[in-house]
Design goal:
220 residues; alpha/beta; seven-stranded mixed beta sheet; 15% strand
């Protein structure tokens, strides 16, 4: 690793993929730190994008991590999101990274919940636009089909293809282009094993490092 991101502070918010010590709050977070960035990450499982606009309770758990500090978990059914406006004011980031996808896919539904996805995403992007902060939106990975969340490759592709059209002003990172369907193993269809999160984190870090907007922010 190098210091390609030296001087930048990243604020990352996400769903369950950011809410467990074995997930992106460790792998991607550490990879960005290794590039010289400061990173503050918040993850709450099961949340849609709109939950980061108005405080939303989610009893299945949350985690946060401040730079090189330990991951602080909340598993006592009192975990809540914090409005993105408050987090931006607290962290003063150069770049906002949003990782939200799977909880909005409606894998258990016959039809893709397009209207709900639109409503949730536009609530959050309106706040992001008002902040005038550079933003990257990480879309869902392939995962594997089946499991308790009923994930399918067709639905995750439908979700990802739609997200990339509506997340502006955020730039969309299409995680589906970073691996083949089913390549990164999961234990429940949706959440990867440790190796999968390592590979996803490394792939995302490379995309972020090479992003033209991010590179332009680095002080040379």
């Amino acid at each position: 690793m190098s210091n390609l991101l030296l001087g930048l502070t990243f604020l990352m918010i996400g769903d369950s993929h950011m809410a467990n010590p074995r997930y992106l709050i460790t792998t991607l977070h550490d990879d960005l730190l290794a590039e010289g960035a400061k990173v503050v990450s918040y993850g709450v499982c099961g949340v849609s994008a709109g939950a980061w606009v108005i405080p939303h309770a989610e009893p299945c758990g949350a985690a946060m991590r401040d730079n090189k500090g330990p991951i602080v978990e909340n598993r006592d059914k009192t975990s809540m999101t914090t409005p993105v406006d408050q987090l931006i004011a607290k962290v003063h980031p150069n770049v906002l990274v949003v990782e939200i996808g799977d909880p909005m896919a409606g894998y258990n539904l016959k039809e893709f919940p397009k209207a709900a996805v639109t409503d949730n995403v536009t609530q959050l992007t309106a706040r992001i636009k008002a902040s005038n902060l550079p933003c990257l939106w990480i879309g869902p990975s392939w995962g594997t089909e089946g499991g308790p969340y009923f994930k399918t490759f067709a639905r995750v592709k439908e979700l990802s293809d739609y997200l990339k059209t509506i997340v502006s002003p955020c730039q969309y990172i299409d995680s589906l282009t970073l691996s083949k369907p089913g390549e990164w193993a999961t234990f429940d269809g949706q959440h990867h094993n440790s190796v999968g999160y390592q590979k996803w984190g490394q792939a995302l870090e490379q995309v972020i490092v090479q992003n033209a907007t991010v590179r332009a922010l680095v002080k040379h």
